[in-house]
UniProtKB/TrEMBL annotation:
It holds the Pfam family ELFV_dehydrog. The record marks 190 as: Important for catalysis. Keywords: NAD, Nucleotide-binding, Oxidoreductase. InterPro entries: Aminoacid_DH-like_N_sf, Glu/Leu/Phe/Val/Trp_DH, Glu/Leu/Phe/Val/Trp_DH_C, Glu/Leu/Phe/Val/Trp_DH_dimer, Glu_DH, Glu_Leu_Phe_Val_DH, NAD(P)-bd_dom_sf, NAD_bind_Glu_DH. The lineage of its organism: Bacteria, Pseudomonadati, Pseudomonadota, Alphaproteobacteria, Rhodobacterales. Residues 227-468 form the Glutamate/phenylalanine/leucine/valine/L-tryptophan dehydrogenase C-terminal domain. It catalyses: L-glutamate + NADP(+) + H2O = 2-oxoglutarate + NH4(+) + NADPH + H(+). This is Glutamate dehydrogenase. NCBIfam families: PRK09414.1. The active site is at residue 150. Signal peptide: none annotated. Catalyzes the reversible oxidative deamination of glutamate to alpha-ketoglutarate and ammonia. It comes from Pelagivirga sediminicola.
Length: 470
């Protein structure tokens, strides 16, 4: 019998959602949802994502019934292709290890499949499918010519040497290279996959294909075709979206208390940009616990610990001292704040967390991670009138900048940081406005969840209709 690590048992108990429940759904959509639940049995994250989108589409079908013809919605809910493969590799003890690799190519109506690769023990086909489904609409919202996909493996990079990670990435690419290409499918990084891993995979892809196809992967290093501001893009984009959301309400970020979950790329650069807007970051976390520093988080210290040393966030208190303190386990959402940015992983912020945030006066929540808030949490935020930005809108800055990297690769160009950030800011403002205006158009002003789902759906659906039944 294989022993399951205690930390994975804890992760599963906290992050795997219950089967979704739908209080009201258009009669035309209920059979579609039933089919999704039946055909994808046990894939709770995918059920959750599909449920949320289908709930929003009732208003679209009522106004534009042609979107329910030609099995359009059924086709959107079914991936175009799902690839599962074995990844054998040799660890530093000369032992053969076996992991499972995935790539779900969900929808290519608007362009080549585009979406990250995630290395984490929790990865399974249901999680990759949910991420690919969300990615389809997220990518559509950017206005860039990219479809939706996602990939990954249950490989855990934590505690592995650089050589082990290199051997795993090379083995992973030996199979994946058959299914990707700059005009077919363009992966990027995600949880557990940064510039190091992208470099190992790109090197193997180059060797296997005997050509320098720079546009096949994004998130590359600057020395071989990467884009400036890509590392910062998802976090910066989330902050840009929050700023637009609050400005629309006649307020701003300056002087606001902000709490961020996570301490990876997304969290770090969301904090950086929020600080530049005058916000005060008072807490952040990692998988073991969270830190609170009422004087304001020292971001340079967080970067040193998490980026240079690859250490635990608890080390912050040991170095900083003062009034800062560390809480092992627990919930970072217990810390009172005006702005909450969940930037760690899916379903990390539950109903009780949402109630606590609302009780403590939160005014805005933006998802820096993919689907980090449970349906119950989202319900509480919307019911309480809290400004809520879903991940498919608020964290689209990463994939938008990946598309800009593809653009630079295609033209053999390299933009300055300022130019790339400026384009990112424009794209995020456009996403915000599309969500806001769509929500108003469909009778739900201020509902960014409905606005994002409908705006993304309409762009994908129109692309599919233009190509006929395929």
């Amino acid at each position: 019998m294989i022993a399951i690590p205690a930390r994975l048992v804890t992760f599963a108990a906290k992050h795997i959602p219950k089967e979704p429940t739908v209080k009201s759904l258009d009669p035309k959509l209920q059979p579609i949802l039933n089919t999704v639940l039946h055909r994808n049995a046990g894939e709770s994250e995918f059920h959750q994502a599909a449920c949320e989108v289908l709930e929003s589409l009732s208003r679209v079908i009522a106004v534009n019934p042609h979107y329910s013809e030609e099995a359009l919605i059924e086709r959107i809910c079914e991936p175009e292709r799902q690839i599962i493969f074995r990844v054998p590799w040799i660890d530093d003890n000369n032992q053969v290890q076996i992991n499972r690799g995935f790539r779900v190519q969900f929808n290519s109506a608007l362009g080549p499949y585009k979406g990250g690769i995630r290395f984490h023990p929790s990865v399974n086909v249901g999680i990759i499918k949910f991420l690919g489904f969300e990615q389809t609409f997220k990518n559509a919202l950017t206005g860039m010519p990219i479809g939706g996909g996602k990939g990954g493996s249950d490989f855990d990079p934590k505690g592995r040497s650089d050589r082990e990670i290199m051997r795993f990435c090379q083995s992973f690419m030996i199979e994946l290279h058959r299914h990707i290409g700059e005009y077919v499918d363009v992966p990027a990084g995600d949880i557990g996959v940064g510039a190091r891993e992208i470099g190992y995979m790109f090197g193997m892809y180059k060797r296997l294909n005997n050509r320098f196809e720079a546009g096949v992967l994004t998130g590359k290093g600057m020395s071989y075709g990467g884009s400036r501001a890509r590392k910062e893009a998802t976090g910066y984009g989330t902050a840009f979206f929050v700023r637009s959301m609050m400005e629309r309400q006649g307020t701003g970020i300056d002087g606001r208390r902000c709490v961020v979950s996570g301490s990876g790329n997304v969290a770090i650069y969301a904090m950086e940009k929020i600080q530049s807007f005058g916000g005060k970051i008072i807490a952040c976390s990692d998988s073991a616990g969270y830190i609170v520093d009422e004087a304001g988080i020292d971001l340079d210290l967080v970067k040193r610990i998490k980026e240079a040393e690859r250490g635990r966030i608890s080390h912050y208190v040991e170095v900083k001292g003062g009034d800062s303190h560390y809480v092992a386990g627990g919930s970072v959402w217990d810390v009172p704040c005006d702005i909450a940015l969940p930037c760690a992983t899916q379903n990390e912020l539950g109903g009780d967390d949402a109630k606590t945030l609302i009780k403590n006066g939160v005014v805005a929540v933006a998802e820096g991670a993919n689907m980090p808030c449970t349906p119950e949490a989202i319900h509480h935020f919307r019911a309480a009138g809290v400004m809520f930005a879903p991940g498919k809108a608020a964290n689209a800055g990463g994939v938008a900048t990946s598309a800009l990297e593809m653009q630079q690769n295609a033209s053999r160009d390299s933009w300055t940081f300022a130019k790339t950030e400026s384009r990112l800011e424009e794209i995020m403002a456009g996403i915000h406005d599309a969500c806001h205006e769509t929500a108003e158009e469909y009778g739900a002003p201020g509902d960014y969840v409905l606005g994002a789902n409908i705006a993304g759906f309409v762009r994908v659906a129109d692309g599919m209709l233009a190509m006929g039944v395929i």
